[in-house]
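__Protein archive entry__

___
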Amino acid sequence: MLVFWEERLVFLAVPKTGTTAIEMAYRPYAGIAITDPPVVKHTPLYRYRRFLAPYFEKSGASDFETVAVVREPVDWLGSWYRYRQRDDLVGHPNSTRDLSFDDFVRGYLRRDRPAFASVGSQAKFLQDAEGAIGITHLFRYEEPEPLLRFLAGRVGKRPELKRLNESPSMELSLRPRLRERLEEECPDEFTVWRAAGTGG
């Protein structure tokens, strides 16, 4: 999470959407940078509004806008699947080393998600307490240029981004029927991605 105090802008770090690269590039220009621990770095919108926004308001700033990135849901799940293939997770309940991508998504669709598929929800991350998409400016991971133009316009800087914290490269495909199930059972994940665009 980055807080650009003078610019009245908060960048919320949705996991697995390239936020580490953005944070490292823009960290020198932020008034507040929370990059660790992960549970705080990845503060969702509803927690930001409940805990941090009131504190900022009491500190004299009540007009912050929020900005975030969202990733196409199947690709987002694929990134989690690849990330949990890494060697240091072998033997851990979170490991996906011996699972197919289809099995990983089936686990994600279970009401009682197993540890390996417990990766949260982009939709819930970006929703307010009432369940509405509450981000002021929402951009797609797949189209980075509008986000970079937006940040450059607000912050006045456009630093070079380095590729960081990437999941291992791997060709993945999801069975068509399983993708249909994902869209049917997790419609909010697709709604929030479709709502993103130029960032408004």
The first helix runs from residue 19 to 26. Residues 2-195 form a domain with the Rossmann fold fold (CATH 3.40.50). The chain has a mean pLDDT of 92. Strands lie at 2-4, 9-11, 32-33, 65-70, 137-140.
